[in-house]
Structures are given as structure tokens and as C-alpha cells.
Design goal:
The protein has 392 residues and is an alpha/beta fold. It has helices at 17-28, 63-83, 102-113, 123-129, 152-165, 213-216, 218-221, 294-307, 357-368, and strands at residues 7-13, 33-37, 52-55, 88-89, 93-97, 119-122, 140-144, 148-151, 169-172, 191-193, 199-207, 226-235, 251-253, 261-264, 272-276, 316-326, 333-336, 343-347. The model has no long low-confidence stretch (mean pLDDT 97). Bound molecules: flavin-adenine dinucleotide. Residues 13-19, 36-39, 43, 46-48, 50, 53-54, 174-175, 208-212, 216, 230, 232, 275, 322-324, 347, 349, 351-355 line the site of flavin-adenine dinucleotide.
């Protein structure tokens, strides 16, 4: 039940990974916080709703996100330990590269400069360690042994449950788009309308609505955040076979392949997970079809035939369709609304945001309390309508 008569210090709209961690950190300041979500935390429609997400330190030359991953991994681990759940699997993350690939060369420099444990592996060593994989085009790689994967949906739900235990209020409720600008002589959003006709009062409203942000703020964000359809496949390994489980297989990213394939080991017996990091067509997060077509499976099998031959004819045991919420270049959007001084926009995870949830929550809390300088790359002003991906 929501108390519509209570005035909260903060209302956070959206309990995906960004909203959940934001509510967590706001509550730690002693503030009153209401977290709400139209479909529940990490639902099947949310970008955070997948089974697993990769947490890697490497971002090519982009040191900003390497530092944010470095900040977030121990926070995920501490949270998992405190709540007694296995939310992180240290599977290792392997980058597959060749001599033309400056991204991985620069990634290695950034890892070394930041004291991150890593191993540079020649192709023969990759073949020796992982005989179930076959990469004729790969001449070397980088292994991050301390990185791995997060149990995404379960982790977000655990963060929300923990925040509720620490005193936040949570409600299943849907916010309707607020007006695009304040009334005359006002600079704030006084109340947030809900789909039920009720409205909520708060000092500050934080919209962490992932791919729904352009729906809530069409004047501001249409074309600046573009949800794209992304398909994910799980393949069933042969019986009595652990070649695709850790420690035999790490997370790997075939960065030099044009379709940007990446794979996660079989965790909790769901199967070998594989997806392609290219942006798909525009997607409607409420009503878009989440059924994968046969054509996609044919493309997948062609890739497997060459690179994971023993799974080439393996059964597809599960598929998922999720959406990225891309900004023009892949940088997050974390900024104050230009017209409402008490409204914040938090999103633009752009296919790589999950791992950064704890750092995003900390950052948003420091921003709304005016306790840290803003990162210019996260500003609304830098978000263009022409898509030119720069963060991988
Ligand atoms: C297939 C796929 C693979 C990915 N792989 C990785 C990876 O390996 N590593 C990684 O770090 N990241 C990865 N990502 C990206 C990452 O998952 C997202 O960037 C991140 O989950 C975004 O979280 P969010 O909280 O911004 O959005 P969401 O999780 O979508 O949360 C937004 C929430 O807002 C709620 N909401 C929306 N509108 C309203 C409203 N009007 N009223 C109330 N509630 C509302 C929704 O119900 C939803 O729960 C991947 C994404 C996809 C789709």
C-alpha cells in the first residue's frame, strides 16, 4: 500500500538495477524513500530481468567504465556475502583478440595501469586451456581471472528486499508521464501522477525507468534513448558433460568477430548462454514480442559450427528477448531534468549498465545531495539523437 498523503524525501520510479541500488544508498543517508515499479523488480520486461549479466573490468581504452566496474565488483561481493546469497560467480572473463585489434591492446594497458589482475594469453595457450572452443582468427587474448557474472534478476530482487528491510517503502504502481514543464512561477514537480488517479508527493523524484524513459519524457528523450531488441540463447550441453561450466569455460567475448558474440558458462544448469552484442531493431518494452525467430537460430548455428563445434546441433533449451536502452554513444544518462529542479533522470545503461548498479546508486545519491562533481559524460547535454556507439 502506498501512502499518498505522506511526503517522502525521495520517490524512485523504477526498480531495475539502477533504481534498486539508488534506493539502497538513499536509505543509508536516513532519508524516507519510496521505490515503485509498474511490473515489479527485475520483471521479464525490464532490462535487468535476465538470468545473468557479465561483470568485466575491460572497456577498451575507456578507463571511466573500468574504474566504475572496479568500484562495483567489491560492492556486489560485499552485498552477496552480507545477505548470504551466491549472486556473483568468479568464472573469469576472456577477451579474444588478434593483431589488428587496438581495443584489446588498449584494454590491457588500462587493466595493467589500474592494477587489475590479468593474463595475456597467446593463441596456443587459449587452445590448450579451452579445447571445446575454436577461434582460427584469434592470435591472442586477455583473461581477467577475478571477473565473472552476476545472477541478475535474483540480485536486483535481493537488493530491493534488503532495502525494504532497511526501511524503504516499496509499491507496485505505475507513474504516468509528468507534465513537460512546471506551472508558471514554479520550478519543481510537486506531485507525481499514478495510473490509478492517485498522486505522490516528494522532495525529489528520481526516474530510473530504463527503456521506458522516452515514454515518460517524450519531449526530452525521444530519439535520445533508443530501446533495441536483443536476443539471447541457451543451449543444452550433451549429457554428463561439464565442458561449458566453470572452471572449464569462462565468460568469453569474441570481440574481433563482426557480430560481437559473447558467451557465458552454464550456471545453475540453465545451459551455455550466447548472444550477439550488435544493436537489434527498435523495440517496445511493454508489448514487443519476446519470441525468437528460426532465422536467428540458423545464424546462431552457423556461428557455433565454426567456433563451438560440439554445440552446433545442441538443443536450444531457452531463449530470451530483452532490450538495450541505448544512448547515442553508450554513455549513461544521469542528470537533473532541465525544467524541474527536483527531478532526476537515470538510465541509458546501453547494454553494459548492469554491472555498474552499485556505483550508479552511490553516484546518484551523491549528485542529488550535491556532494560530488558531476561526470560530464553522463549529462543530458551530451545525449545526441544520431546514434554513434563509442562505448563497448
Ligand atoms: C540481453 C542483454 C544483455 C545484457 N548484458 C549485460 C551484461 O552482460 N553486463 C552488463 O553490465 N549489462 C548488460 N546489459 C545491460 C543491463 O542489463 C542494463 O543496462 C540494465 O539492466 C538497465 O537497468 P535499469 O535499471 O536502467 O532499467 P530496467 O531494468 O529496465 O528497470 C527499469 C524499471 O522501470 C520500471 N518502470 C518503467 N516505467 C515505469 C513507470 N511508468 N512507473 C513505474 N515503473 C516503471 C520498469 O518496470 C523497470 O522495472 C544487458 C542487457 C540486455 C538486454
Amino acid at each position: 500500500m502506498i501512502s499518498t498523503s505522506k511526503k517522502y524525501d525521495f520517490v524512485v520510479i523504477g526498480s531495475g538495477v539502477f533504481g534498486a541500488w539508488t534506493a539502497h544508498y538513499l536509505r543509508r543517508t536516513g532519508a524516507s524513500v519510496l521505490l515503485l515499479d509498474a511490473y515489479g523488480p527485475a520483471s521479464s520486461r525490464a532490462s535487468s530481468g535476465g538470468e545473468t549479466r557479465v561483470i568485466r573490468m575491460g572497456y577498451g581504452p575507456d578507463e571511466l567504465y573500468t574504474r566504475w566496474s572496479m568500484r562495483s565488483l567489491p560492492l556486489w561481493q560485499e552485498f552477496a556475502e552480507r545477505t548470504g546469497q551466491q549472486l556473483f560467480h568468479k568464472t573469469g572473463v576472456l577477451w579474444l583478440s588478434n593483431h589488428d585489434d587496438s581495443y584489446t591492446r588498449q584494454l590491457l594497458d588500462v587493466l595493467l595501469r589500474n592494477g587489475i589482475r590479468c593474463e595475456k594469453l597467446p593463441a596456443e595457450e587459449i587452445r590448450r586451456r579451452y579445447p571445446q572452443l575454436s577461434f582460427a582468427d584469434v592470435t591472442w587474448g586477455v583473461l581477467e581471472p577475478e571477473s565473472g557474472l552476476l545472477m541478475a534478476r535474483r540480485a536486483v530482487q535481493a537488493v530491493v528486499e534488503d532495502a525494504i528491510r532497511s526501511g524503504i517503502d516499496y509499491a507496485l504502481a505505475s507513474a504516468v508521464p509528468p507534465p513537460s514543464s512546471p506551472q508558471a512561477n514554479e520550478s519543481k514537480l510537486r506531485t507525481l501522477p499514478l495510473s490509478t488517479g492517485d498522486s505522490l508527493s516528494a522532495g525529489i523524484f528520481i526516474f530510473a525507468c530504463g527503456p521506458w524513459l522516452p515514454r515518460l519524457f517524450p519531449d526530452l528523450l525521444a530519439g535520445r534513448i533508443c530501446p533495441t531488441r536483443q536476443e539471447v540463447f541457451f543451449l543444452g550441453p550433451p549429457p554428463a558433460n561439464n565442458d561449458f561450466q566453470p572452471p572449464k569455460m569462462p565468460v568469453w567475448l569474441h570481440h574481433t568477430h563482426a557480430a560481437l558474440p559473447y558467451a557465458l558458462p552454464d550456471i545453475e544448469n540453465r545451459g551455455f548462454k550466447i548472444a550477439f552484442d550488435l544493436h537489434g531493431p527498435h523495440f517496445d518494452p511493454d508489448a514487443g514480442s519476446r519470441v525468437v525467430g528460426e532465422a536467428s537460430i540458423a545464424l546462431l548455428r552457423a556461428y557455433l559450427k565454426e567456433h563451438v563445434p560440439s554445440l552446433c546441433n545442441a538443443p536450444v533449451v531457452e531463449t530470451r528477448v530483452c532490450q538495450y536502452e541505448n544512448t547515442s554513444n553508450g554513455d549513461f544518462l544521469i542528470d537533473r531534468h532541465p525544467q524541474f529542479e527536483n527531478v532526476w533522470l537515470v538510465g541509458g545503461g546501453s547494454g553494459h549498465g548492469f554491472k555498474h548498479g552499485p556505483a550508479v546508486g552511490e553516484y546518484v545519491t551523491a549528485q542529488v545531495l550535491s556532494k560530488a562533481a558531476p561526470e560530464p559524460r553522463f549529462s543530458l547535454a551530451t545525449k545526441q539523437t544520431v546514434r554513434k556507439r563509442e562505448v563497448f
